[in-house]
Write a structure and sequence with these properties.
Radius of gyration: 19 Å
Number of helices: 4
Structural class: mainly alpha
Amino acid sequence: MYPRELLSMNAQSSKVEDVWQKAKNLSLDEKSELIERLLDKESDLIVVSATTPLADHVIALTNLLSLEGLTYVWESIIGRIFEESNNSRC
């Protein structure tokens, strides 16, 4: 449905390892700038945190939706909010 590439977590890449080793020595501001550049809107990269997997997973999946898909999801959420709001008033 959506183009994607899967990377093996066990794959060894000397270029990535070199960058990783250099990134470890960056200041916090430099790391922030690096992340901002990597996650630029044109990069199509998504960050998923290991500490909050469900919320990040939902955000990542939502990010992959088309405008039509987003419209469907938000209309469903709005409908549920109104329904629950009306039920709580009864």
